[in-house]
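User: Hey, quick favor. My workstation is busy. Could you predict this chain's structure for me?
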Amino acid sequence: MLISPEQLNGKAGAHADVAAFAMRAVDLSLGFGTNTVLDKVSLDLPARRVTSLLGPTGSGKTTFLRALNRLNDRVSGYRYSGDVLLGGRSIFKNQDLMEFRRMVGMLFQRPNPFPMSIIDNVVAGVRAHKLSPRKDFKSIAQARLSEVGLWDAVKDRLGDSPFRLSGGQQQLLCLARALAVKPEVLLLDEPTSALDPTSTAKIEELIRSLADRLTVIMVTHDLAQAARIGDRTAFFFDGRLIEEGPTEQLFLSPKHPETIRYVSGLSVTAGWVAHTRNGGADGGQER
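Assistant: No problem, here it is.
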Protein backbone atom coordinates (compact mmCIF):
# COMPACT_ATOMS: atom_id res chain seq x y z
CA MET A 1 0.00 0.00 0.00
CA LEU A 2 1.39 3.38 -1.00
CA ILE A 3 1.73 6.10 1.58
CA SER A 4 0.78 9.70 0.96
CA PRO A 5 3.19 12.61 0.39
CA GLU A 6 2.02 14.01 3.75
CA GLN A 7 3.05 10.80 5.51
CA LEU A 8 6.34 10.67 3.65
CA ASN A 9 7.09 14.16 4.93
CA GLY A 10 6.00 13.39 8.48
CA LYS A 11 3.05 15.75 8.38
CA ALA A 12 0.05 13.58 7.69
CA GLY A 13 -3.18 15.48 7.83
CA ALA A 14 -1.55 18.90 7.79
CA HIS A 15 -3.08 21.35 5.32
CA ALA A 16 -5.14 18.52 3.80
CA ASP A 17 -7.58 20.85 2.06
CA VAL A 18 -6.10 21.25 -1.39
CA ALA A 19 -8.93 23.70 -2.24
CA ALA A 20 -7.17 26.29 -0.04
CA PHE A 21 -5.01 27.73 -2.80
CA ALA A 22 -2.60 30.65 -2.54
CA MET A 23 -2.41 31.32 -6.28
CA ARG A 24 -4.50 30.08 -9.18
CA ALA A 25 -3.83 30.22 -12.92
CA VAL A 26 -7.02 30.37 -14.98
CA ASP A 27 -6.80 29.56 -18.72
CA LEU A 28 -3.45 31.34 -18.78
CA SER A 29 -1.76 31.69 -22.17
CA LEU A 30 1.61 33.40 -22.54
CA GLY A 31 3.55 34.43 -25.60
CA PHE A 32 6.12 36.74 -27.12
CA GLY A 33 5.22 38.24 -30.48
CA THR A 34 3.67 35.51 -32.61
CA ASN A 35 5.23 32.72 -30.54
CA THR A 36 2.92 31.12 -27.98
CA VAL A 37 4.96 29.73 -25.10
CA LEU A 38 2.17 28.49 -22.84
CA ASP A 39 -1.37 27.57 -23.87
CA LYS A 40 -4.43 27.76 -21.60
CA VAL A 41 -2.93 26.57 -18.34
CA SER A 42 -5.22 26.24 -15.33
CA LEU A 43 -3.50 25.27 -12.10
CA ASP A 44 -4.26 25.67 -8.41
CA LEU A 45 -1.21 26.27 -6.23
CA PRO A 46 -2.09 25.20 -2.68
CA ALA A 47 -1.25 27.40 0.29
CA ARG A 48 1.55 26.32 2.62
CA ARG A 49 2.68 23.55 0.31
CA VAL A 50 5.69 23.02 -1.95
CA THR A 51 4.66 22.70 -5.60
CA SER A 52 7.36 21.56 -8.04
CA LEU A 53 7.16 22.53 -11.71
CA LEU A 54 8.80 19.93 -13.95
CA GLY A 55 9.36 19.68 -17.68
CA PRO A 56 12.05 19.59 -20.35
CA THR A 57 13.82 22.73 -21.52
CA GLY A 58 11.41 24.84 -23.58
CA SER A 59 8.29 23.38 -21.97
CA GLY A 60 7.12 26.76 -20.64
CA LYS A 61 7.54 26.11 -16.91
CA THR A 62 10.01 28.97 -16.29
CA THR A 63 7.93 31.44 -18.29
CA PHE A 64 4.96 30.36 -16.17
CA LEU A 65 6.93 30.91 -12.95
CA ARG A 66 8.07 34.35 -14.11
CA ALA A 67 4.47 35.26 -14.92
CA LEU A 68 3.51 34.58 -11.30
CA ASN A 69 5.86 37.46 -10.33
CA ARG A 70 5.03 39.55 -13.43
CA LEU A 71 8.66 39.45 -14.51
CA ASN A 72 7.65 39.07 -18.14
CA ASP A 73 5.80 42.40 -18.22
CA ARG A 74 8.63 44.44 -19.69
CA VAL A 75 9.87 41.84 -22.18
CA SER A 76 9.38 43.03 -25.75
CA GLY A 77 6.34 41.51 -27.41
CA TYR A 78 5.02 39.89 -24.25
CA ARG A 79 1.33 39.07 -24.28
CA TYR A 80 -1.03 37.08 -22.10
CA SER A 81 -4.62 36.04 -21.85
CA GLY A 82 -6.46 34.44 -18.97
CA ASP A 83 -5.60 35.33 -15.40
CA VAL A 84 -3.58 34.58 -12.29
CA LEU A 85 -5.25 35.05 -8.93
CA LEU A 86 -3.53 35.81 -5.64
CA GLY A 87 -5.91 35.65 -2.71
CA GLY A 88 -8.74 35.59 -5.23
CA ARG A 89 -7.66 38.82 -6.97
CA SER A 90 -6.05 39.25 -10.38
CA ILE A 91 -2.33 39.96 -10.14
CA PHE A 92 -2.48 41.81 -13.46
CA LYS A 93 -4.78 44.45 -11.99
CA ASN A 94 -2.37 45.20 -9.15
CA GLN A 95 -0.86 48.60 -9.91
CA ASP A 96 1.61 48.55 -7.01
CA LEU A 97 4.25 46.17 -8.35
CA MET A 98 6.62 46.87 -5.48
CA GLU A 99 4.08 45.75 -2.88
CA PHE A 100 3.01 42.82 -5.06
CA ARG A 101 6.59 41.59 -5.26
CA ARG A 102 6.92 41.89 -1.51
CA MET A 103 4.04 39.42 -1.21
CA VAL A 104 5.37 37.19 -4.00
CA GLY A 105 9.14 36.90 -3.60
CA MET A 106 11.56 35.16 -5.93
CA LEU A 107 14.89 33.37 -5.68
CA PHE A 108 16.74 32.93 -8.96
CA GLN A 109 18.88 30.16 -10.42
CA ARG A 110 22.10 32.00 -9.69
CA PRO A 111 22.70 34.09 -6.55
CA ASN A 112 22.16 37.80 -7.14
CA PRO A 113 23.34 39.68 -4.05
CA PHE A 114 23.22 43.46 -4.29
CA PRO A 115 26.49 45.46 -4.41
CA MET A 116 26.22 46.48 -0.78
CA SER A 117 27.20 44.98 2.57
CA ILE A 118 25.92 41.65 3.83
CA ILE A 119 23.65 43.26 6.41
CA ASP A 120 22.35 45.83 3.93
CA ASN A 121 21.48 43.00 1.54
CA VAL A 122 19.32 41.31 4.15
CA VAL A 123 17.38 44.44 5.09
CA ALA A 124 17.22 46.01 1.62
CA GLY A 125 13.55 45.14 1.19
CA VAL A 126 12.70 46.02 4.78
CA ARG A 127 14.20 49.46 4.21
CA ALA A 128 12.54 49.95 0.81
CA HIS A 129 9.10 49.01 2.12
CA LYS A 130 9.61 50.88 5.42
CA LEU A 131 8.56 47.78 7.33
CA SER A 132 10.65 48.47 10.45
CA PRO A 133 12.64 51.31 12.00
CA ARG A 134 16.38 51.41 11.39
CA LYS A 135 17.13 50.46 15.00
CA ASP A 136 15.62 47.03 14.32
CA PHE A 137 17.67 46.28 11.21
CA LYS A 138 20.41 44.34 12.94
CA SER A 139 17.99 42.13 14.87
CA ILE A 140 16.04 41.46 11.68
CA ALA A 141 19.26 40.56 9.87
CA GLN A 142 20.32 38.26 12.70
CA ALA A 143 16.93 36.50 12.75
CA ARG A 144 16.84 35.88 9.00
CA LEU A 145 20.51 34.93 8.71
CA SER A 146 20.06 32.52 11.62
CA GLU A 147 17.00 31.03 9.95
CA VAL A 148 18.96 30.19 6.81
CA GLY A 149 21.96 28.96 8.81
CA LEU A 150 24.34 31.74 7.80
CA TRP A 151 24.60 33.83 10.96
CA ASP A 152 27.59 32.10 12.55
CA ALA A 153 29.57 32.41 9.32
CA VAL A 154 28.97 36.15 8.84
CA LYS A 155 28.18 37.65 12.26
CA ASP A 156 31.67 39.15 12.58
CA ARG A 157 31.74 40.59 9.07
CA LEU A 158 28.29 41.98 8.41
CA GLY A 159 29.87 45.01 6.76
CA ASP A 160 31.78 42.92 4.22
CA SER A 161 30.90 42.54 0.56
CA PRO A 162 28.62 39.57 -0.14
CA PHE A 163 30.80 38.71 -3.11
CA ARG A 164 33.40 37.34 -0.69
CA LEU A 165 30.97 34.57 0.22
CA SER A 166 30.83 31.20 -1.52
CA GLY A 167 28.13 30.56 -4.11
CA GLY A 168 26.08 28.55 -1.63
CA GLN A 169 26.40 31.25 1.02
CA GLN A 170 25.37 33.92 -1.49
CA GLN A 171 22.22 31.96 -2.31
CA LEU A 172 21.42 31.60 1.39
CA LEU A 173 21.93 35.36 1.76
CA CYS A 174 19.48 36.00 -1.08
CA LEU A 175 16.99 33.67 0.59
CA ALA A 176 17.39 35.57 3.88
CA ARG A 177 16.75 38.82 1.98
CA ALA A 178 13.59 37.40 0.41
CA LEU A 179 12.30 36.16 3.77
CA ALA A 180 12.99 39.44 5.56
CA VAL A 181 9.96 41.13 3.93
CA LYS A 182 7.62 38.30 5.01
CA PRO A 183 6.26 37.14 1.64
CA GLU A 184 3.13 35.05 1.29
CA VAL A 185 4.51 33.14 -1.70
CA LEU A 186 8.10 32.29 -2.57
CA LEU A 187 9.00 31.44 -6.18
CA LEU A 188 12.19 29.46 -6.78
CA ASP A 189 13.78 29.16 -10.22
CA GLU A 190 16.12 26.15 -10.01
CA PRO A 191 17.60 27.57 -6.79
CA THR A 192 20.18 24.82 -6.30
CA SER A 193 21.28 24.06 -9.87
CA ALA A 194 24.56 26.00 -9.50
CA LEU A 195 25.35 24.74 -5.99
CA ASP A 196 27.35 21.88 -4.50
CA PRO A 197 25.53 18.95 -2.83
CA THR A 198 26.08 20.28 0.71
CA SER A 199 24.58 23.69 -0.11
CA THR A 200 21.78 22.00 -2.03
CA ALA A 201 20.86 19.88 0.99
CA LYS A 202 20.77 22.96 3.24
CA ILE A 203 18.46 24.85 0.91
CA GLU A 204 16.17 21.85 0.40
CA GLU A 205 15.84 21.49 4.17
CA LEU A 206 14.98 25.18 4.44
CA ILE A 207 12.39 24.93 1.69
CA ARG A 208 10.62 22.10 3.50
CA SER A 209 10.61 24.03 6.77
CA LEU A 210 9.29 27.20 5.09
CA ALA A 211 6.21 25.39 3.78
CA ASP A 212 4.76 25.45 7.29
CA ARG A 213 4.14 29.18 6.93
CA LEU A 214 4.27 30.19 3.27
CA THR A 215 3.63 28.84 -0.21
CA VAL A 216 6.61 27.62 -2.24
CA ILE A 217 6.50 27.16 -6.02
CA MET A 218 9.70 25.77 -7.49
CA VAL A 219 10.99 25.06 -11.00
CA THR A 220 13.46 22.20 -11.04
CA HIS A 221 15.02 19.86 -13.61
CA ASP A 222 16.06 17.51 -10.82
CA LEU A 223 13.49 14.74 -10.57
CA ALA A 224 14.90 13.43 -7.31
CA GLN A 225 14.69 16.90 -5.81
CA ALA A 226 11.02 17.17 -6.77
CA ALA A 227 10.40 13.79 -5.16
CA ARG A 228 12.26 14.82 -1.99
CA ILE A 229 10.56 18.11 -1.25
CA GLY A 230 7.49 18.59 -3.44
CA ASP A 231 4.05 18.05 -1.93
CA ARG A 232 2.56 18.42 -5.40
CA THR A 233 4.13 18.35 -8.84
CA ALA A 234 3.01 19.83 -12.16
CA PHE A 235 4.48 18.55 -15.42
CA PHE A 236 4.75 20.87 -18.43
CA PHE A 237 5.50 19.77 -21.99
CA ASP A 238 5.52 21.72 -25.24
CA GLY A 239 3.74 24.72 -23.77
CA ARG A 240 1.01 22.73 -22.08
CA LEU A 241 0.28 21.60 -18.55
CA ILE A 242 0.12 17.84 -19.06
CA GLU A 243 -0.49 16.56 -15.56
CA GLU A 244 -0.46 17.68 -11.94
CA GLY A 245 -1.20 16.13 -8.59
CA PRO A 246 0.40 14.76 -5.43
CA THR A 247 4.08 14.12 -6.11
CA GLU A 248 3.94 10.44 -5.22
CA GLN A 249 1.01 9.90 -7.55
CA LEU A 250 2.67 11.68 -10.47
CA PHE A 251 5.87 9.65 -10.10
CA LEU A 252 4.32 6.26 -9.38
CA SER A 253 1.10 6.40 -11.40
CA PRO A 254 1.46 8.99 -14.17
CA LYS A 255 -1.60 9.17 -16.41
CA HIS A 256 -0.19 10.58 -19.65
CA PRO A 257 2.40 9.17 -22.07
CA GLU A 258 4.50 12.36 -21.94
CA THR A 259 4.76 12.13 -18.15
CA ILE A 260 5.58 8.42 -18.27
CA ARG A 261 8.41 9.05 -20.71
CA TYR A 262 9.77 11.93 -18.66
CA VAL A 263 9.99 10.00 -15.38
CA SER A 264 11.01 6.70 -16.98
CA GLY A 265 14.69 7.58 -16.70
CA LEU A 266 14.39 6.76 -13.01
CA SER A 267 13.65 3.47 -11.33
CA VAL A 268 10.44 4.84 -9.91
CA THR A 269 9.01 2.60 -7.20
CA ALA A 270 7.29 3.25 -3.91
CA GLY A 271 10.50 2.33 -2.12
CA TRP A 272 12.50 4.74 -4.33
CA VAL A 273 10.13 7.63 -3.57
CA ALA A 274 10.28 6.99 0.16
CA HIS A 275 14.08 6.59 0.03
CA THR A 276 14.44 9.81 -1.97
CA ARG A 277 12.24 11.77 0.39
CA ASN A 278 14.47 10.64 3.22
CA GLY A 279 17.42 12.17 1.40
CA GLY A 280 18.96 8.86 0.37
CA ALA A 281 18.77 9.03 -3.41
CA ASP A 282 21.50 10.30 -5.68
CA GLY A 283 21.05 11.73 -9.09
CA GLY A 284 17.66 12.18 -10.65
CA GLN A 285 18.96 15.05 -12.74
CA GLU A 286 17.32 15.47 -16.10
CA ARG A 287 19.38 13.81 -18.80
